[in-house]
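[SOLVED] Predicted holo structure with S-adenosylmethionine

Edit: marking solved, answer below. Original request kept for reference. I posted the sequence and ligand SMILES and asked for the 3D complex as structure tokens.
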Amino acid sequence: MNVARTAAEWDRVHTVGEGVGRMISAEELIKFRRFVGPGPGQVVIDAGCGKGAFSQQLWRYGCDVTGIDWSAEALRRARRALSGGQKRRLRYLQHDLNTDGPPEVESSSVDLVVCRFSLAHLGDRERFLSQARDWLKPGGIGYVMTFVREKLPPRAAHAGLAEEEIAVLDRGWGSAVRYGLGRAAVVVLRRADLAP
Ligand SMILES: C[S@@+](CC[C@H](N)C(=O)[O-])C[C@H]1O[C@@H](n2cnc3c(N)ncnc32)[C@H](O)[C@@H]1O
């Protein structure tokens, strides 16, 4: 099941709250540092960044961050939270991730693509993950965090991926590590290194 929303619907979701900003737990960050290893100078895309809470966290690690979201309202709030000093390494782009691009992001230019609680909302997940691999440098990492549908009440099932969908996220990637975080699963995907 997938509840397709338009950009305007996402604007409304972000305006009324609806709990779209997923809490960042200490456990998530401990595992993120261990399995992803963010660091200064890394070029990062936060795909479906919402109001930018995780983009801000990535900025605190010293990364050069571009948050992408379809919702102008989410980005308005994300930009409002930016301090002047952050703007050199943290920017936001409005873009529909169900389409190609955005043109600002070049192939093989990115160290890490974060997709936190967004993948279940995209129309064609395989297409997006293929796009993410194209953005990544060889050996670059995709961080996918998603609710597990089987762990959600029926009314919220659209916000998660089914176990069988999570199991195939690693198709086309060089390697993958999966772990659980409450009702969510994290899959850390590594783009194959093209070097022999
Ligand atoms: C559940 S929220 C997650 C927000 C944030 N990543 C977090 O962890 O709190 C899903 C986000 O995906 C965005 N989104 C949904 N469809 C999108 C699309 N086609 N292109 C870009 N962003 C999209 C929504 O606007 C929303 O901000």
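OP edit: Residues 7-190 form a domain with the Rossmann fold fold (CATH 3.40.50.150). Thanks to everyone who chimed in.
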